[in-house]
Amino acid sequence: MQPNAPSFLIRQPIVDRRERLYGFRLSGAAGAVAVLRDEIGGAGIRDLVLLVDMRPAQAMNDWPRDFDRLRWMPLITGNLPADGDFADQARTLHRRGVRFSIGDAAPGSPWLGRLADAHCVRVDVRRVPAAHWARYAAALKRQGPRLIATGLETRAQMQQALEAGFDLFEGHWFTRPETYASRAVAPVYGAVLRALSLVRAEAELRTIEQALQADPALAYKLLRYVNSAAFGLRSEIHALRDAVNLLGYRPLARWLGLALVTARVDAGANAALALTAITRARIMERLEQRSGSDSGEAFMAGLFSSMDALLDMPMQRVIETLAPPPGVAAALAERGGAWGGMLRLAEACEIEDTGLAATIAGALDIDAETLARLHLHALAWAYKLTASEPGGA
Questions:
Q1: Number of H helices, E strands in the chain
Q2: Which of 306, 357, 294 is nearest to 332 (CA)?
Q3: What b/e string do you get for 344-364 counting C-beta neighbours within 10 Å, with b at 16 or more?
Q4: Apex CA 75: angle with CA 71 and CA 80, to 5°?
Q5: pTM of the model
Q6: Are residues 256 and 213 in the same domain?
Q7: Of 39-48, 53-62, 176-185, 211-220, which one has max mean pLDDT?
Q8: Which residue among 34, 113, 215, 324 is least packed, with the fewest CB closer than 10 Å?
Q9: Are residue 220 and residue 366 in the same domain, yes or no?
């Protein structure tokens, strides 16, 4: 691969102490700066925090000026330069207000004496005995940076890192059900699931309308969606039946699926999980379209792939509850069927193993740059969608 060629991008969400989304770490992105600018910068997103893995030379000398006006910053990884130029450049950037972060502040890291000018530093907590997390965090914070705990695999570990004094938390622990405690679907999801089930069964419009009326907030969102500028209607629609009739079954099922995964985002909860699910869905939708198909099933498979964590129930019960088409069910149950490979690739974009992404992409005949563009487009699309209303194009 050429030095400036895009590599297989991996994203990791970063949340704050209240589990609100702070931003994303993008590893394997040093050669994809132009793609990053095109797909996310070009989408008009200015408030998405991105920590982009870069080597010291690129971060200090070639850091794109465009990024200064965004909330993106280099996450410096690799070896500490032997000469003294790095320290001088780092202080200069810090005085200019240009933020950068350090990728490794675990015990033994050569960067430990260079943290004062960094905005954030990452600590792989797997390299620190759990009993020492609080003491280690306190020692690092005396140098000034915010601390990102990474290597977290369970919610219990995330809670322990929070209590130890870390500021930010990186990982995908939230995509795994913790207890399977849910015996009944939470009320916030009930109306959406009932309506979605009816739409999937192509029930009568009156029956679907009644299901939507059971949740006034959901009905209001649907009316606001169909009256948005995207539809260009000459006069507003005020009746739910007219809204349902305008959309039709398949677009309404898509809108309800998005409403399901974003049900708690407005309250500040599940934002990272919702973004993960929607990003997977969009990647898969674009992959399906590249293959010449447009059934909409790939999108639904990606969207529902984290529903076990959202509802805290086994995936088999999720499948029984949602009753998706057979191809979607096969992808969710065992990553099989027509959409299983696409789902595995979308998930590989979240795992710190670029070799896995490369292997699955190769089997699907997807090159690194194409996947990078699909991935970043999907992330930008999902981020804008969750900041507005479900159902955007």
A1: 18, 8
A2: 306
A3: bbbbbbbeeebebbbebbeee
A4: 145
A5: 0.90
A6: yes
A7: 211-220
A8: 113
A9: yes
